[in-house]
Design goal:
This protein is mainly α and 165 residues long. It has one domain (25-163). It has helices at 2-22, 31-37, 39-76, 82-135, 156-163, and strands at 26-29, 140-143, 153-154.
């Protein structure tokens, strides 16, 4: 009987320690804070702003030219023949189409550039989070912004250190 009790106590103790060891190690990280403060992100934002300003400047010139011609053609509409007015109308429609096409192309170029600049940044952050998480023995690392409760270990500073800032 004594042996059975000792065996039962040993079994309960063993199961209890196994349950404790089976609990997952969980951490959280503030990805937005990391990305926002990365030097590479600041450089990418500057490049995107510069590209956007370039397109905006060219759009402004095109629109001003359009408005200038439109005003001139409207003033002269009564003094020129119908054939000239039709040609001018066609010219203005073509200019309007070029402006719209240019705007569409500019938006696509900016979007493509943003994706090209941001993907390596996101990939680098993800790799660093995985590296730090594994090095510290965490099985799960959640983004702080998506966690309902984030009282666990915060590895944001460790990831920033790994990324060199």
């Amino acid at each position: 009987m004594k042996t059975a009790k000792l065996f039962l106590i040993a079994l309960v103790t063993f199961i209890g320690t196994q349950f404790t060891n089976a609990q997952s190690k969980i951490a959280h990280v503030d990805v937005q804070d990391i990305i926002t403060n990365m030097p590479a992100m600041k450089d990418a934002q500057k490049q995107l702003e510069q590209l956007s300003k370039t397109y905006e400047g060219e759009m402004k010139v095109m629109i001003e030219e359009f408005q200038k011609k439109l005003g001139k053609y409207q003033e002269e509409a009564e003094t020129v023949d119908d054939k000239t007015n039709e040609a001018r109308t066609k010219e203005m429609e073509d200019m309007d189409k070029r402006i719209k096409d240019y705007r569409s192309t500019a938006q696509k170029d900016i979007s493509d550039k943003e994706e090209a600049l941001m993907k390596p940044i996101y990939d680098k952050v993800r790799a660093s989070i995985e590296k730090v998480g594994k090095a510290k023995g965490f099985e799960y690392v959640f983004d702080k912004t998506s966690a309902l409760l984030a009282n666990g270990t915060n590895i944001t500073a460790d990831v920033k250190k790994d990324l060199g800032f």
